[in-house]
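Open question from group meeting: does this chain pack into something compact, or does most of it stay loose? Before anyone orders reagents, we agreed to write out a predicted structure and look at it together. Recording both the input and the output here so the notebook holds the full record.
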Amino acid sequence: MSQSDFMERDTVLVLSDNDEVIGSASKKESHQFTPKNPRGILHRAFSVFLYDLSTQELLLQQRASTKITFPNVWTNTCCSHPLHGMDVNEVDAPEDVMDGTVKGVKAAAVRKLEHELGIPVGQLPMDSFKFLTRLHYWAADTVTHGEKSPWGENEIDYVLFVTVPNKDKLTIKPHVDEVDDVCWVTKAKLLEMFADKDLLFSPWFRIIANRWMISSGEETGKGGWWDDLDRTMNTNEFCDYESIHRFDPQEEHLGGGGNAGPLFGVGK
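Structure tokens returned:
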């Protein structure tokens, strides 16, 4: 199937501002930035961060040039959406969020890791994923499509960490229509890449990385999530299931087809 086919077929979970599932929409409709819907339609998403414990490296992917939204950008391991109508239920209720189980989001993550990166289902079982928190962000894809971009993101994004003892035992066969490249990076290498003005990064990845993954820990006093993966994965010190952290995009991602301006003012 083509990217356009997936945009028409896949049915995302439409949300209230409090992350309650209130309906459905096609992936295409939810990502269109128009005067009627300046930031598209709010829907549920997830972001997976896969680490090699032997080297403390994170797996990045470069989204395919054929992607309709945010092509060519480097981002975290896998980013996508739970959907309505899947064989394995991907719709989590509020109680699933509050107890941190979010089996629906995790099922969607397993499905998309296989689809995008060719990682067999059994290599990353659902119970190996750690749900950390949620963020509501939006961003017009103005870098790709210009200041009046008809495309963008408006999501409540569930952050999932997962680790493997050694990457050499992991099967990775990227789907050419989804992923142009992959690489494993240390924190130092990622910061070097962020400083390279010739590289593009997804706005959601920058937010998560700068806010929590590689932060100085000034806000929480606990350091960044990447600083101690054992503590991140095996304790609940970094888990926040109650909050929905809210972020406007970087300035270059304001605007779009509905001329959307700041919504939140500051991250919350």
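Observations to bring back to the group:
The helical segments are 3-9, 27-30, 94-98, 103-117, 142-145, 187-194, 203-213, 229-234.
The beta strands are 11-15, 21-26, 43-52, 57-63, 74-75, 78-80, 130-140, 152-164, 179-185, 244-247.
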